[in-house]
Design goal:
single chain; mainly alpha
Length: 137
């Protein structure tokens, strides 16, 4: 996070790491089957792009496009798909947009909180909140 509370530097590092791994995949694998590229992307590249999404959820269009550009590049690695539109390549490889992936992750976290899968002591939070309120007033 920088002094303006932006995560652009974090996203830049994530994009750089994702592109490095993608370049390694491109140089290392001769077989460019859609199933193999999808597995390699989801196992080795996407974790770099999704790291700390709960904290630094990108909301600037520039940051979102940077992240999506890495996935766009990954779909062009699949043999026979490089001349197709990005949306069609995603459908062929059966990958969602990264924006959808982030929203899905947010919904999963909300579900976990609402169904008690995280042990958050609500009563202590309420007591702290009340004591802070009493001090402020």
């Amino acid at each position: 996070m920088d002094d303006r509370l932006k995560f652009s530097t974090h996203i830049g590092h994530a994009v750089a790491n994702g592109n490095q791994v993608l370049g390694l995949i491109k140089r290392s694998f001769v077989c460019r089957d859609s199933h193999i590229i999808k597995q390699l992307f989801t196992a080795h590249v996407r974790p770099h792009l999704e790291y700390a999404n709960a904290v630094c959820h990108p909301w600037f269009k520039k940051d979102i496009e940077q992240l999506e550009r890495v996935q766009r590049r990954a779909t062009t690695l699949v043999a026979g798909l490089s001349n197709m539109l990005y949306q069609n390549r995603l459908k062929a490889v059966k990958l969602p947009f990264l924006v959808y992936q982030r929203c899905r992750g947010d919904m999963i976290e909300v579900y976990k909180y609402l169904h008690g899968m995280y042990s958050v002591p609500y009563d202590s939070l309420l007591k702290k909140g009340l004591s802070l309120y009493q001090v402020a007033s």
